[in-house]
Amino acid sequence: MKPALQLKLSQHLALTPQLQQSIKLLQLSTIEMQQEIERYLLENPMLEREDEGPESFANAQQFDSPRNNEESRNESSEEREPREERESEAPSAPSEVDDDRWTSDAGTFTGAGRDEDDDSDSQDIHAANVSLREHLGWQLGMTQLTERDRSLVRFLIEALDDDGYLSAPLQELWETLPPEYEIELEELEIALRHIQNFDPTGIGARNLQECLSLQLKAMPDEHDRNVALLIVDKHLELLAARDFAKLRRVTGYDDEDLKAAQSLITSLNPRPAAGYAQIEARYITPDVIVKKLKGKWTAYINPDAYPRLRINRLYAEILAKQRRGNGNLSTQLQEARWLIKNVQQRFDTIHRVTQAIVDRQRQFFEHGEVAMRPLVLREIADILGLHESTVSRVTSQKYMATPRGIFELKYFFGSHVATDTGGACSATAIRALIKQLIGAEDGKKPLSDSQLSEILGQQGIVVARRTVAKYRESLNIPPVNLRKTL
Questions:
Q1: Which residues pair with 108 in a beta bridge?
Q2: How many angstroms separate the CA atoms of 100 and 105, rounded?
Q3: Domain residues for 164?
Q4: How far apart are CA 122 and CA 243, in angstroms?
Q5: Of 269, 208, 272, 203, the residue nearest 236 (C-alpha)
Q6: Which regions in the chain score pLDDT beneath 50?
Q7: Sheet (strand 296-301) strand order
Q8: Domain termination site, one of 410, 434, 460
Q9: How many domains, the chain?
């Protein structure tokens, strides 16, 4: 064959650097985006943060409120309100009750070792500065033990887990010690008893039963703890299973004595070292603030989350005066303009998606979770003319501050359950109803999953028992037998 030239037409999709940057910024969280912008500021001299001063150069645009969509480009009186009004105190995050769950071989039961509403108590403040091992080491230094005994105590302190338990068997720990030290197993047992006399009470226990027993024995004599000790030492599984009828038979005590013992046991701390655990702070900067203005729920971009950028005037003027353009500076100028435009486009898209969510879920803002509507990504995508993947990127790791708390945008999306009227009910609303029903139930006769399903059916919501059980478990609510009280 003879070589020949041919013209061939074809189509292919290419992502320009500007489009790649736009997609990347859109999927980043606010904190990640701030870090990315800091990197650009260090690498590109044409880019700088906008301070109180001259207007931005070239294509740098200011952004005071979300008015980039077609409906809000004409500045309204609400958007011209003073900045102080728009930047008023944002609502705090909703409190999340994380009940302590005590686990035994027979089941679980709820403990009340500390005040759940007090998330920053003295133990947490102490834990921020002193670890559990440091705290125990300080107490060890106050003892009159010999250096050999101190070494054994330090060895066991290092073997404690994050909850303060000695989870490894003492025999196995003893076998790991060098034979030349000629340490007897009894010496390790004595060292463990020294640890169990340290603060916090219950430290060094080998199981839950021993942990609770140590705390009960350390109580002042005025506490009537005999019944509680009997239950912890011999019948903890029955208490965990809420089998009060069998507890009455095997202990011989009446309901009043058992109720007092149960109250005393549930006041103990099943995780004595929890106050010394390292707490990792997770900071959230809301991207959007939602307020009700003139009877309408409206979303505004959080000014603290929006980075104000502009072109560096000095470098731009130097580049403009040069007869022959500097290739490197020209490239950096173009990249800076892209970044400013993409940042503004990112927040414009976030605002549009958030406002669409607020419009669809306005009943939630009025009445709470029970009024949540079913919503899927495609529904918002169709309303705004966006691709479903774009909506997914926008709603991931982006947060809105509302009078009801701070929520991730994905929180407002969920599956639906059919109703008798042919409509649909959000899974979030059903979970809220289940939580309300269980919260109002009689502790002596708690509602089973089947009963909850029947009650929801009477309200027109068709939910199977298995579905109720799934929603109840997602709320960390124990089954009916573990919710029963005396």
A1: 103
A2: 17
A3: 100-276
A4: 36
A5: 208
A6: 52-128
A7: 296-301, 288-293, 399-402, 405-408
A8: 410
A9: 3
